[in-house]
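I hope you will forgive my troubling you with a question about protein structure. The matter concerns a single protein, recorded as an amino acid sequence and a row of backbone structure tokens. Please examine both parts with care and let me know of anything in them that strikes you as inconsistent. Here, with my thanks, is the record as I have it:
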Amino acid sequence: MQTPLWRMFTTETSRLRRVNNVITVTVIVIIGIRNTPAKSASPVRQQHAGFRNPMTDDGWDYRWVKSEWKKEDNTAGEWNHTSGKWNGDADDKGIQTSEDYRFYAISAQYPEFSNKDKTLVLQFSVKHEQDLDCGGGYVKLLPADVDQKKFGGETPYSIMFGPDICGYATKKVHAILTKNGKNHLIKKEVPCETDQLTHVYTLILRPDATYSILIDNVEKQSGSVYDDWDILPAKKKRDPNAKKPEDWEDEEFLPDPEDKKPEGYDDIPKEITEPDATKPEDWDDEEDGEWTAPTIPNPEYKGPWIQKKIKNPNFKGKWKAPLIDNPEFKDDPYIYAFDSLKHIGIELWQVKSGTLFDNILITDDPEYAKKFAEETWGKHKDAEKAAFDEAEKKRLEEESANAKTEDNDDAADEDEGKAAGASDEENKDASGDEKVEEISKDASSSSDKKDEL
């Protein structure tokens, strides 16, 4: 009998801990969610995979722990195990949010490790089938002391990474590192994908404190953890005790001493009486008051006089206090590292559901992560795009057909309304004719009675 995958994982984990005390395999964990038996690993996977977990239908929810967060107020959403409405491989299933206006929280455990002196690669695929307008698609790496049943929005995490979309203002990749209890957001903007297809997001943290962010195996951002996160105080700061020297000239321009205000300049009026104005012939001083000529802008008036300026030959630039060593700065050679990483979690709020996660990978080998993305997302992206295009074509055809049906129904309702109106008019005419007849009969009867008399 073949050993279940989760038992293989448990056995391998125990062996690694007994031998090394820490996890030293290249791939810490691979979480893929499929409903078919595991296929033979490729040479790349055999060489690098410390654990490979394709997962059967019966296994995915054993490995993943659904949190009880938000269940008391009935706002906790349910996850579906599915390959989605359109896909490149119907057997390649992930977990998908299934209810609108809901909170989602789910997590899985792997062998605890630290990425000190190692490269850390966090990678996963995500697809927003619902044409997301507000909601997240990110994952979190969590420490060992997390209670998975209580995992939620307030649970401390070590790393949060992935796309976040809300309206037109927010369409970016989050990369948040938590140090000393404070969440530090990346300062650089990293736009995320916004279509309805699967995309792979990769975060790489290296021992030299550099990082890279990739989307679909293409680098979108890179730099230094020191520079692009405000984790540590600045190495240098302005000397608070420094004072500007008295002879420091920071005015770039000075008034030109040779430029003098013209004599009588201030006496020039802003407006003058219109010279061609004449009192109207029908103007009555007694009734209209004393007539005064209107005023017009004075063409000689140039506004307040401003003295010309010349370059200051002694200009030294704007004065700034000199930089000194910041006594609050203490270098952290492990600014990129975390002591305890033991859980992968997904915690979201979604207005519209339909986000699907799959192929979560944690490794210390960027090349392996790249090949893993090629073997999963890369092999199926074209087929998925074709399936999506076909689904869109059918959707548009259905919308067009429904629109025509609605137009026909509206036209039919309009015709019925016209017919009903015409019938009402006919009934009114007939009723009027009947009344005329009755009046005629009454008149005739009255005339007959008069004749009898």
